[in-house]
Amino acid sequence: MSDAAARREPATASADARSAAAVDPARPAPLASEDLLRGRRLVEITHNGEVYRLQATRLGKLILTK
Q1: Helix count (H) and strand count (E) of the chain?
Q2: Distance separating alpha carbons of residues 20 and 52, to the nearest angstrom
Q3: Residues 42 and 64 in one domain
Q4: C-beta separation of 55 from 65 below 8 A
Q5: What's 45's DSSP letter?
Q6: How far apart are CA 41 and CA 49, in angstroms?
């Protein structure tokens, strides 16, 4: 896949997600992983007093661990 195609995929996915949210107003709009990670490969998230780690892999997958 070309770099240009890779850059377009998230925008397409976001447009699909926005249209799905428009169909079901009770469904919250998804957050882009780029907004959560902000250029980092790892972020820590607190939830109910516990710390979770959200990590982006080299293959572009996400891993959430406690």
Answers
A1: 2, 3
A2: 28
A3: yes
A4: yes
A5: E
A6: 23
Task: Point out which residues pair with 54 in neighbouring strands.
Answer: 43, 64
Say how far apart CA 42 and CA 21 lie, in whole Å. Answer: 28
Parent domain of 13? 1-30
Residue type, 66: K
Helices (H), ranges, 1-66: 3-23, 33-37
Interval 40-54: pLDDT, tens: 999 999 999 999 999
State how far the alpha carbon of 24 is from the alpha carbons of 2, 5, 19, in Å.
Answer: 33, 29, 9
pLDDT given for residue 23 in this prediction = 72
